[in-house]
TrEMBL record:
<protein>
    <recommendedName>
        <fullName>Lipoprotein</fullName>
    </recommendedName>
</protein>
<feature type="signal peptide">
    <location>
        <begin position="1"/>
        <end position="28"/>
    </location>
</feature>
<keyword id="KW-0732">Signal</keyword>
Amino acid sequence: MPRLPLVSRLPLALSLLTLALLAPTAAAQNERPAPVKTSTQTCGAYTLKLSENGFGDPEDRVSLVRGGTTYATVSDIAVSVDWCRDVTGDGVPEVLLAGFSGGAHCCFTHTLYSLSTPPRKLLSVFSAHSETITPRQLDGKGPLELLVSDWRFAYAYGLSFAESVPLLNVYAYVGGQYVDRSRAFPGTLRGFLTRQVTNQTGGGEVLADYATLLAIGKSGEAQAFVQGLPARFRAWLTNYGPDIRHAMNDYGLSDWPLRAGAPFSAARMGLGGSFSAPNQREYLGMVGGGTQATLRLYRAQGAQVVAGPALMTVPARQPDPYYLDTAWAPVATVRRATGRDDLLVRDERSGGMRYVAYRVSPGRLTELQDDPLAVTARMLGDLSTLSKHVGASFTQTTPPRTAAQRAEVQRRIDVAAARAQPWLNLAANADIPARALGSLTFSGLDLTVDRPDQARVVAPISLGLNDARTNSEDIEGERYTLTVNLVRSARGWAVKDWTLDERGGELYEEE
């Protein structure tokens, strides 16, 4: 079945918008506009009814209808039927429905239904910048696999969108639904690598190649790939390599909660790692449900994925099916000398910014106390809280803050500065005035030394200072390597000192 193009409706939408502006105000207020176009198609035993309103209000809709009953509906600024075909091989066709939010090349969502009686949802995926999903037979047998673009690196690390290249996700039919099984198809992923990198190769291609090698478990080959690159790409990936490795943490694993029984409608996020034992591939996932989110450890048992008991339950919002908003969230895993991964969590439930380190076991989450990672987490939390309050003081409010409100902002800065100053005093090569620290962010960190009596934490960070020209809470930061040296004495673990060193290697250096 041919795909109904989204872009072909733009001229019609603009014409209708012009007519609407000329229509009498009273009519616009009292009459609900009829859909611009209503059409039907047939797929299997079902009718696909499309109501298209040309990017207007109400939203477009596509519904699965049979015998006068509507079984499912997808609505968005624009909708389409991508294809109707049997991809599972059971003789019953599937239909792929697309929604488009109307932004600049973003965002698309796709929902796949088996047109059984009644229809069954087999896949619901946020496709970002990709218009469709491609079925393909990859393993030579059984149901077709689905090729989906993964846009996690769009605009990343100085790339424009035009340069950005998606990674490939492979969805396979497992247990009656399509789930992300990308890591099970290393040959397919490798087939998308750039054949030869030159100075004329796009940065997005180079980044995608590096990330793909990480995805298929070839970390050594990935590092050799970086060393063999032209100088500007080599410096760029050396600069952002830790960030990229962190960003790839959950690749191919984020569907594990679905495979363990979580519903499609539940938003989820999480991190991959070896939490319970070295060399174990596990997924620590938060799954939304109502007004809460629950953290569990998901583990493979044969071909199945099983969920462990609840490790933490916190308040959460789910504004849409693909986004989970919670003030307590896993942000990074940290590999320890034992080969296991510990967990770093951002906790903003009290209004400040805390980072807390945990040890994870299948049935328990244990907060680390006298531990080098825990001490570093406290330092990062206090500095981040200070930067949050300092940055917020430059927010332009309407109406302007009252004297009492300005005094409260200053009080919060004073409290945060008092907590942060002891850490700032330990800087070996930087002099950062507490009230100038306007932004501090990081995506991951590494324990490069993890011994019983000494430790070293290394993290790429972005740090920004406000000055007399600052007039917004968006304080741009510069990239540094933060190195924290810790020692253990009779009183426990403590920071000995820390340093900041500039990180070079931007893809496009500012002149």
